[in-house]
Design goal:
The protein is mainly beta. Helix content is 8%, strand content 38%.
Length: 365
């Protein structure tokens, strides 16, 4: 039987060498285009999504350094402990899930350091103190990994605050002593207020250090071995005395606030604004849609308005338990107790304050 000859198929001619670079460029062009990436990143509400986008190609990494502008839509996180090891992880409130990350001391069991506070992108951490080994503070930038080591702390403290230029101030409420240190200093500077003044709280607001002395507001000027108090307003009388107890300084939109609590049948929080013209505290019931965050030891930050997944005109207060916080509405006076539920969460009957939760604010790095 005769067989039919089939025509041989010929492959198309190879592209000329001059077209090869263009084809390669097209095949490796990131999608979406790089000029849209910052606009996309600033709308992401999860750190996992942000860093996944950043890691997808070299061009994106160069365009997305962690910054306030690019992390503007990231909601506050809660730094929680994993029970029973007390390793630390970040809890995403709206998504109710963990962001795990590795700390330089995370392989130590139990960890040799614990986090006290978060400010300006830094976790303020301390070694465990003992009679023979005073605590050492280390500032670890959560996103860049930068570390700033501070000298041994000479005197006891429970509160830490940090200025915009990373001046650390330590104090013990109810005492007259203040310790302060700049990055690079070999020793802490220690100063005391004149008797009978003692500090109940301190806070930096727009570069100014304010102190609560009793219920009077004062501006503090620190020098190497001394401090100067400049009181604002007159002594408070019964009519001008703010309600509540457990007073804490705060700030909102550059204004100095006073926050108190009443623990009666239900938890109630009061917020007062300092009125310079009148020289007194005035109660307020609105924060302009913003939200105040209080840590276990004091004020943490003000965010908003319109922070994703966060209620406006509310106070978020970290509790003494390892995964607890309260949400108090200034609008209707309701107070809801929340618990972070995650693998490794401590039992609800565990009230140990060894590692109270710490608020972390990616949008304020």
């Amino acid at each position: 039987m005769a067989t039919e000859k089939r025509p041989r198929r010929r492959s198309p001619p190879a592209a000329s060498s001059s077209a090869t670079p263009d084809a390669a460029a097209v095949s490796f062009t990131p999608s979406p285009p790089p000029d849209l990436i910052p606009d996309i990143a600033c709308r992401l509400t999860s750190l996992e999504d942000f860093f996944a986008l950043r890691a997808s190609c070299r061009d994106y990494r160069a365009l997305l350094p962690p910054s306030r502008a690019l992390l503007a839509s990231q909601p506050p996180l809660l730094l929680v402990a994993l029970f029973p090891s007390f390793a630390e992880a970040l809890y995403h409130l709206p998504l109710r899930r963990l962001h795990r990350f590795r700390l330089p001391w995370g392989h130590h069991l139990p960890p040799s350091r614990h986090t006290l506070f978060y400010a300006h992108g830094f976790l303020v951490t301390a070694t465990t103190a003992s009679a023979h080994y005073p605590p050492r503070l280390l500032l670890l930038h959560l996103f860049s990994g930068e570390q700033l080591r501070l000298p041994k702390v000479p005197a006891p403290f429970t509160r830490v605050i940090l200025s915009d230029d990373l001046v650390a101030v330590l104090f013990l409420p109810g005492r007259p002593t203040v310790q302060h240190c700049h990055p690079g200093d070999a020793l802490w500077r220690v100063a005391c207020a004149d008797a009978p003044h003692v500090f109940h709280d301190m806070l930096f607001v727009d570069g100014t250090l304010y102190a609560l002395v009793g219920l009077r507001l004062a501006i503090v000027e620190l020098s190497d071995t001394s401090l100067e108090l400049s009181f604002l307003g007159e002594e408070l009388d019964d009519e001008s005395m703010p309600a509540g107890m457990g007073f804490t300084l705060g700030e909102c939109a550059g204004e100095v606030l006073l926050i108190s609590e009443d623990n009666m049948e239900t938890m109630v929080y009061h917020v007062f604004r300092w009125v310079s013209a009148d020289g007194k505290w005035a109660p307020i019931s609105s924060l302009g849609g913003r939200t105040l965050f209080l840590g276990f030891q004091g004020f943490a930050a003000c965010v908003g308005p319109d922070c994703p997944g966060i209620r406006g005109d509310c106070l978020y207060v970290a509790g003494s338990r390892l995964s607890e916080w309260r949400e108090y509405s200034l609008v209707d006076g309701t107070c809801d107790i929340r618990y972070a539920e995650y693998p490794g969460a401590p039992p609800l009957n565990n009230s140990s304050p060894i590692r109270p939760p710490v608020w972390v604010f990616p949008s304020l790095c």
